């Protein structure tokens, strides 16, 4: 279906059947995961699937149908018949009709640039790398160790009744590490990071340096286990990139999803505190805080040629010098909100799902200061590295995060480890206390942003740099 | 999706296993039709149906394991899956933890399948939603929510002679009612029979809460008496399950059960089983390893009894699998307690509320997590119906609060229990989690509130 005429023929059939819009999306996916747990190869898994999903706009309502039973000449038209029936039913409970933002027809092909195909890396090489990392993580008090590498390849083609016909091949790979240490008389300590994935070849895993990360994690987990509880008081926080990548995801990415504004997600994922009337006026953070959605960043998990509406990748400011300015949008939500064009954020997990508004690469923009300058500006504070537990309310306005690693900062220098640090805040209060962002911006990749009904797990990217936050109340639980 | 039925589904699996000539191999198939209709602003905005097949193959060569998965039941595809799994196994070292394949054993007949539900169409789903929207519109509010129908078939076959098949249906309807005054109310129904979903009653419950939810005030942090409705209890049970109820978590010392089996861990009014065989549960009677599911006592009258096991964690513990393996791609090895049954009581909702001098009523939670897994501590914010109770009556609406407390301490303070209802936690309602609970509403003497959203 990547090359033949079945998708186009079926879309033409749907158009002739009276639908106002139709598209057909063929997707094939493969992945390979190798994991080593406590010295044993725990899993060596290879996963493949393929299928077709079709959408129609009929009588002002959407209908969608998908299947993996796609052998034969005329397999797509019956899917369109089901989709039209779903749209007919939807139109019986309708207050407002779907209006799509305009989009010129697109043609072309997008492929990930890579130097070494991760699927071609010998299994032995992957296992040896993981065994090496596992051996480093085997600290005196380590109870559970797990390291893994994963590779993903997605090929897809989208044909629409607007004249779009685009093909994409996206390759991603990355590594994950996890170690939990425990000792009598204290609660366990965990160090993990499963968000080191890029749209790239195996060269990314080599640059990431799994063994170096294992050494850091081994040192950290033993130090945290032996650490004293932090002192519970308002303090200055210097937060690292992996931690802020998740904070940006949860406290800016989700509340700027425009389908939440339209209450499409209200019964499950929730809504937002950032409404259309607030654009251009709502102070989201301090003047140091700017955030963007950018699907053109090389290596991002939210990078592509076109979204699943067939809209080319673009860059959208979300927060500009602390002021809320933009949304993540699709053709449908842009149309509903009166935006001039879609922000190219309509994506579906695989062939079997309806495209919804998803994050692309949503990032905290770098600042002018160096990490050292931010650090030297702290007389008494904490360096927080990598998130542990996190919980958000349904408007993304009230959040709670705990940290894997906290270290005391005294007179501009990083000192001893402390335990049990967590904080809760309202989103604008937290970002409003930011008084500096460093220039050490780096990209992180999340493979499982969860949203939608039924569940859709999406790969998204987030860039961040160290940032400093003043007078933050913390909780200490040990 | 047309049901394939046992012979048509199992026959190609046995043929492929025989042709593979592998000494140890298994195949697990999960077929699913998901028909999901979502609505907001009293208008359907998403109406999707999807047919999926997942085939998982494992080949074991000298106790080294390879695994593959695909989405076709064609003979060539199954042959390739098993050959690929064997190829992956052959490049590995032996795994000393390999527990061996399940052996053939009888399992109970599946009971969670309803043919009428499997026949439900898009128009039927729209009709149920129209009933809710009409009632909500009449009340002057707006409605959002979901109607979903899942039809599934599971089959497991292995070279030890396991041959298991079960169909199932899951019907779910929820309504979130919103008012221009900023209030919201929530209600849902869950069953394997769509006929047991009651759109009018769901609308009525949600409308009542939305109407009450006006002029919110903030609650100061502190300890309060509380009434947890069933959906809120399911959230606490989920945290207990994911942090502490698997054999793997106990083995690794991460569980609240570790080292305290036979000792009190909560108060005497708390009893919890995992029971996929309960007639009120949603489950099939075997796990993906092909082991029949068993009823497992987890906590009885406050005393820790033990975790659930899959074959991996059972071997490590010197125990037998209780039939609690799950998709290893989602949860890893170790066992998963996903059909929780918490003992209930006879207290009515009014009696639960009437027993509170000054406290809080919690309808449900949003995006919970655990800052202290060993104590099964949960933090999360409430939503869609949080109220202040004074002298046995709901007196006013509250802004959503952040709750943070150990499940063990919370359940240690149970005063009264209502009857059980089939519910799911927030995470499991869209498939992020996979836990179904028969859970009661409860009145507790102490719930810890650690913050509040703006009023």
Structural features, described:
The complex is a heterodimer of chains A (478) and B (455). By secondary structure, chain A is an alpha+beta fold. Chain A has two domains: 6-226, PmbA/TldD fold, CATH 3.30.2290; 235-476, no CATH class. Chain A has ten helices and 24 strands. In chain A, strands 8, 9, 16, 17, 18, 19, 20, 23 and 24 form a nine-stranded mixed sheet that branches. Chain A is globular, with a radius of gyration of 24 Å. The mean pLDDT of chain A is 96. Chain B has 455 residues and is α+β, with helices and mostly antiparallel strands. Chain B has two domains: 5-205, PmbA/TldD superfamily (PmbA/TldD fold, 2-Layer Sandwich); 215-455, no CATH class. Chain B contains eleven helices and 17 strands. In chain B, strands 3-2-1-4-5-6 form a six-stranded antiparallel sheet. In chain B, strands 7-12-13-15-17 form a five-stranded mixed barrel. In chain B, helix 4 runs parallel beside helix 5. Chain B is globular. The model of chain B has no long low-confidence stretch (mean pLDDT 95). Chains A and B meet through strand 2, strand 3, helix 2, helix 3 and strand 16 of A and strand 1, strand 2, strand 3, helix 2 and helix 4 of B. Strand 2 of chain A pairs parallel with strand 3 (64-70) of chain B, so a sheet runs across the interface.
């Amino acid at each position: 279906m990547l090359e033949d005429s079945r998708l186009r023929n079926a879309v033409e059939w749907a158009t002739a059947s009276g639908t106002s819009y139709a598209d057909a999306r063929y997707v094939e996916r493969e992945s390979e995961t190798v994991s080593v747990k406590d010295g044993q190869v725990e899993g060596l898994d290879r996963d493949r699937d393929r299928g077709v999903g079709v959408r129609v706009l009929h009588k002002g309502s959407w209908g969608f149908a998908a299947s993996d039973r796609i052998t034969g000449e005329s397999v797509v038209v019956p899917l369109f018949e089901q989709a039209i029936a779903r749209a007919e039913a939807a139109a019986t409970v309708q207050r407002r009709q779907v209006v799509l933002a305009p989009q010129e027809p697109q043609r072309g092909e997008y492929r990930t640039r890579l130097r070494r195909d991760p699927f071609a890396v010998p299994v032995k090489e992957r296992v040896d790398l993981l065994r090496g990392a596992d051996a480093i993580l085997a600290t005196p008090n380590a109870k559970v160790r797990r390291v893994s590498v994963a590779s993903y390849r997605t090929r897809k083609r989208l044909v629409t009744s607007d004249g779009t016909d685009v093909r994409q091949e996206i390759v991603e790979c990355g590594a994950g590490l996890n170690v939990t240490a425990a000792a009598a008389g204290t609660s366990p300590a965990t160090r993990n990071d499963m968000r080191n994935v890029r749209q790239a070849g195996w060269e990314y895993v080599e640059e990431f340096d799994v063994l170096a990360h294992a050494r850091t994690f081994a040192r950290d987990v033993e130090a945290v286990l032996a650490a004293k509880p932090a002192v519970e008081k308002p303090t200055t926080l210097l937060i690292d990139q992996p931690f802020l990548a998740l904070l940006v995801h949860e406290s800016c990415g989700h509340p700027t999803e425009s389908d939440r504004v339209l209450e499409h997600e209200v019964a499950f994922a929730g809504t937002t505190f950032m409404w259309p009337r607030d654009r251009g006026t709502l102070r989201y953070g301090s003047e140091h805080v700017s955030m963007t959605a950018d699907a053109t960043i090389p290596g991002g998990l939210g990078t592509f040629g076109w979204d699943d509406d067939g809209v080319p990748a673009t860059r959208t400011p979300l927060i500009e010098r602390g002021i809320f300015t933009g949304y993540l949008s699709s053709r449908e939500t842009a149309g509903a909100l009166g935006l001039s064009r879609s922000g190219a954020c309509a994506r579906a997990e695989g062939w079997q799902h309806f495209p919804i508004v998803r994050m692309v690469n949503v990032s905290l923009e770098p600042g002018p200061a160096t990490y050292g300058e931010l650090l030297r500006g702290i007389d008494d504070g904490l360096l927080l590295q990598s998130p542990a537990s996190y919980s958000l309310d349904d408007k993304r306005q009230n959040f709670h995060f705990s940290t894997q690693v906290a270290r005391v900062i005294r007179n501009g220098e990083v000192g001893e480890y402390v335990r049990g640090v967590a904080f809760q805040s309202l989103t604008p209060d937290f970002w409003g206390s930011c008084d500096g962002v460093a220039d050490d911006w780096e990209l992180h990749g999340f493979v499982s942003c969860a949203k939608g009904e039924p569940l859709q797990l999406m790969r998204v990217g987030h860039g961040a740099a160290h940032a400093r936050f003043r007078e933050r109340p913390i909780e200490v639980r040990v | 999706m047309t049901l394939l039925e046992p012979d048509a589904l199992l026959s190609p699996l046995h043929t492929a296993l025989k042709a593979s000539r592998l000494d140890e191999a298994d195949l697990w198939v999960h077929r699913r039709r998901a028909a999901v209709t979502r609505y907001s602003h009293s208008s359907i905005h998403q109406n999707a149906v999807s047919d999926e097949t997942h085939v998982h193959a494992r080949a074991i060569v000298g106790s080294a394991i390879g695994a593959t998965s695909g989405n076709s039941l064609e003979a060539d595809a199954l042959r390739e899956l098993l050959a690929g799994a064997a190829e992956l196994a052959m490049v590995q070292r032996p795994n000393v933890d390999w527990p061996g394949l399940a052996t053939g054993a009888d399992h109970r007949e599946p009971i969670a399948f309803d043919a009428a539900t499997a026949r439900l169409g898009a128009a039927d789903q729209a009709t149920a939603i129209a009933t809710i929207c009409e009632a909500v519109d009449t009340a002057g509010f707006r409605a959002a929510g979901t109607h979903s129908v899942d039809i599934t078939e599971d089959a497991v076959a292995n070279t030890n002679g396991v041959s298991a098949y079960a169909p199932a249906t899951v019907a779910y309807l929820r309504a979130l009612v919103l008012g221009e005054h900023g209030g919201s109310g929530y209600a849902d129904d869950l069953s394997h029979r769509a006929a047991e979903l009651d759109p009018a009653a769901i609308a009525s419950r949600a409308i009542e809460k939305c109407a009450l939810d006006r002029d919110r005030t903030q609650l100061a942090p502190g300890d309060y008496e509380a009434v947890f409705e069933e959906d809120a209890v399911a959230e606490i049970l989920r945290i207990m399950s994911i942090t502490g109820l698997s054999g793997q978590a106990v083995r690794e010392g991460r569980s609240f059960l570790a080292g305290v089996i036979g000792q009190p861990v909560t108060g005497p009014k708390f009893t919890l089983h995992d029971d996929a065989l309960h007639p009120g549960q949603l489950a099939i009677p075997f796990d993906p390893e092909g082991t029949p599911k068993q009823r497992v006592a987890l906590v009885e009258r406050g005393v820790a009894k033990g975790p659930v096991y899959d074959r991996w964690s059972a071997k490590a513990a010197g125990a037998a699998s209780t039939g609690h393996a799950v998709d290893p791609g989602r949860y890893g090895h170790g066992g998963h307690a996903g059909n929780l049954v918490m003992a209930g009581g006879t207290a009515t909702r009014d009696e639960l509320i009437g027993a509170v001098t000054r406290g809080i009523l919690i309808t449900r939670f949003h995006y919970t997590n655990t800052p202290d897994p060993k104590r099964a501590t949960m933090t999360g914010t409430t939503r869609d119906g949080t109220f202040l109770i004074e002298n046995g009556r709901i007196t006013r609406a509250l802004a959503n609060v952040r709750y943070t407390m150990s499940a063990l301490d919370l359940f240690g303070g149970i005063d009264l229990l209502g009857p059980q209802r089939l519910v799911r936690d927030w995470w499991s309602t869209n498939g992020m989690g996979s836990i179904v609970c028969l859970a009661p509403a409860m009145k507790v003497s102490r719930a810890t509130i650690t913050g509040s959203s703006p009023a």
